[in-house]
Amino acid sequence: MIKFMKGFLINLQFFTALPIPLELPMDKEHLRKAVQTFPLLGLFQGIIYSCLFYVFHEFTPFSHLADTFIVWLAMILVTGGIHLDGWMDASDAYFSYQDPEKRLEIMKDPRVGAFGVLSIIVLLGCKFLFIYESTLNVEQATYFFIAAIPFLSKSVMGVLLLTIKSAKNNGLGSLFQSAAKPRVLWIYPVYLISFLFLVMLISKDYFLVGLLILTAVCCLFLCRRKAVKWFGGITGDVLGASVEGTELILWMTVWLLHYFVMG
User: Fold this and answer.
1) What is the tally of helices (H) and strands (E) in the chain?
2) Are 234 and 164 in contact (CB under 8 A)?
3) Could you give the count of Cα atoms lying within 13 Å of 208 in the half-sphere of its Cβ?
4) Hey, which residues does 166 pair with through a beta bridge?
5) Spatial distance between the Cα atoms of 143 and 103, rounded to a whole number of angstroms
6) Which of 12, 47, 75, 260 is the most core-located residue (most Cβ within 10 A)?
């Protein structure tokens, strides 16, 4: 259990901007536990966003636009923009329309190109729209959606990491991949079932959360296929782009549900 907690703290150090003033071990066993707690990291982030929205929506005089902006901004600040960086690098590489080897070289370039800038504007703009309109009519399910989206995107990240070959032998993705095997993912379905069961106990809208899980599975297969086709495998940037892309599609799904299912 101690190694499990340390693995979670490693994730906080690597994938968030939250200060963790501890010197944590980076051996394979602890990195393996870190991979196993990717979904818990996402759930932790989702709970922060959900609680933040609840507090500002229920207890402050701020407008709904301001509430949305605060949650949207928190999603950037809590992660430190680490996945956004991967989204921009992967966008620059993809829109170069080169072969996978050349795209990997482009992702190594610390400079951001025009396509990276345009892609981040589109990503953040769309996400803001989806969050704003999805939370206009706040229901109990709204808070579950906010918490579930990073939980599911980090689950997708973990599965991609351990089920696709690495495109290069260095970097953050390769570090975690070298420490764990696909069999450690047995705990991910346990997380999903437990989360869905908890939602079933609290809300009648559990089938909507189930639909969100199904959408995340579709994102997983899409990302698996495109990562190999476009980049020749997994890198840290590709994983970051996959997290951001998955979250965007999940938010779009929630947005569409509010229009056509929840009314």
Assistant:
1) 12, 0
2) yes
3) 23
4) 234
5) 39
6) 75
Dist. CA 84–CA 109, nearest whole Å: 15
Question: What's the pTM?
Answer: 0.95
Residues 108, 218: Cα–Cα separation, whole Å: 29
Select from 212, 251, 240 the least CA-distant residue to 119.
240
**How far is residue 64 from each of residues 46, 58, 94, measured CA to CA in Å?**
19, 11, 36
| Cβ-contact 200, 133 below 8 angstroms | no
Which of 179, 185, 163, 187 lies closest to 242, judged by CA? 163
CB-based burial, 63-77: b 16+ in 10 Å, e otherwise: eeeebbbbbbeebee
Q: Say how far apart CA 252 and CA 73 lie, in whole Å.
A: 18
Is the alpha carbon torsion for 52, 157, 125, 134 positive or negative? Answer: negative
